[in-house]
């Protein structure tokens, strides 16, 4: 059974600065017809009524219990209409969307990733064929843009994932061509009281409906970030906030219409204009999963992070000759059938050999057939390459995969020209690379599809040789002492920054 809160995603906006900022963005006028598409307990409606007690407001809400609360709360307000309905499926709203919209202002904190039963998902997919139907907030935003009159304004608080994720390309296209963005505020989800979202960041997007796409693309909008606290939302002129202006046409021209937001215009130029990307010079692939690590994975010491729940590796069962075994993808006969595997964790340059996977013939057969197991991209197993953890703690990191297995929490990067391996190893650990990937995808995730999009600039030969030599020295030092000279690393970073100009 899923909880009521999860089913309806009933996380109410209990933050006065957020509500006040959003209401102020609507520039309310006395005669506005206003819509709240997911009423909850009516926090936006109350604030609007406190400014204009005669405001004409329509509320929709799916949850019967919330509708009862709303009806009671606003029983004296004849100008407030409450309907129990599904905003995404309702025929009246659909009708009004098709005829150019009827609202002057819309305000919402829609459900994010709301649970939808299978039948509803099928209907939604039909109604919104281009959109990512699994993520409810995008559907609400789309529906509400359609419900706005020409020049009507909308303010939504939603996760920032629509700015970059591949799945939201159609939504970005719609926003950029059907609306003029007024302002986009980006801040940590911790500003939203009471709920810990799985999402890294939240955004408040305010936009104005415009039917002429040329007018939309000509529009320039402001992005605000760098918030230290939620109160700054009510003081947007605060000098400590960072503000950037973008023309919609430039965003539209970005790969997949992604909103690339960076302080430095050089970073944006590199991403949108560089001819070569990491995906052109290397193969970037996700690694292996046994399907049941508790059963097949062993650890060198239980003291290791997350090592408590795994069986201890027995030195006698570890195979060291596997690199010369041409049949390795079918598994190993005999007692020595455990092989080293590189797992996630943000260790730079070289990870100690700590984890070992059962690679017996029977185990490999299991990996190839089990539903949960991922025997994916096997032609890259046991090859020499680079591993970048899918999740970074702060900055992106990379370490060598020295002919080992690598698990699915890692993206394996295998340069087509092996001569680039150590250069790329330094690059993926550098602040230059971090700036690029965090602009391509601001969350702390580095899936293969984003890594492939990082611009690659072929270094001059002298730089390539020097970086390769110094990086090899660092790797050797880590292998023998467990640490490395950070001064040398700084020199590497400077050489890479010199090549990229950032
Ligand atoms: C995130 S809460 C926000 C409530 C309120 N607007 C606020 O900010 O406090 C989302 C609300 O939308 C309602 N809801 C979820 N799916 C809906 C749908 N398809 N149509 C209408 N309301 C829906 C939930 O019951 C919940 O009250």
From TrEMBL:
Q: Which residues cross the membrane?
A: none
Q: Name one GO biological process term.
A: DNA modification
Keywords on this record? Methyltransferase, S-adenosyl-L-methionine, Transferase
A Pfam family of this chain: Eco57I
Q: What GO molecular function annotation could you give as one example from this UniProt entry?
A: nucleic acid binding
| Domain Type II methyltransferase M.TaqI-like span(s) in chain numbering | 73-187
**PANTHER family in UniProt:** DNA METHYLTRANSFERASE A, DNA METHYLTRANSFERASE YEEA-RELATED
Q: What is the name of this protein?
A: site-specific DNA-methyltransferase (adenine-specific)
